[in-house]
Specification:
mainly beta, 4-stranded antiparallel β-sheet
Amino acid sequence: TGIWQTVWIEPVGAVYLDHLRITPDVDTAQVRIEYFIAGQADVQLETAIEFEGTQLQRRTHSQDPQTFLLASLLQLWSPEHPALYSVRVRVWQDGQVVDEVSTDFGMRKISIEAGKVSLNNEPYYMRLVLDQGYNPQGLLTFPSDDDIRRDIEYTKAMGFNGVRKHQKLEE
């Protein structure tokens, strides 16, 4: 059927951060980060966590999973208040930065309490819409990030707080 999402080629060195696994724990105000390094090497990692430009944690450590306490500025994510933390990880080898990755994460907990959905330990009524993912300009591909953002804003303006995606994954 052809390419229907963004494709890119990314040059990497012999040693690089392949991916992260970020697991929030709202009840303890902590986040656990696991690091997956590609290539065989003895490296040090530097992880910095920020919220709205304020640095909360910065640590140099080994490749072992790390737990960071965020209680000093715990901001919970919700559709109404999509608070995101920024995390930057640098991979150091022989005193040189060989890779650097930045991403975002939200502190949120979704659970079932007494048969009802809870968000961050509070009952949460879900008003969902089925999104087929089509748009007039690109069929299955939005022309720009602004178009994706506008689609989400329209959905929220109509009173929905969630979307069930149909037959495809968004970027």
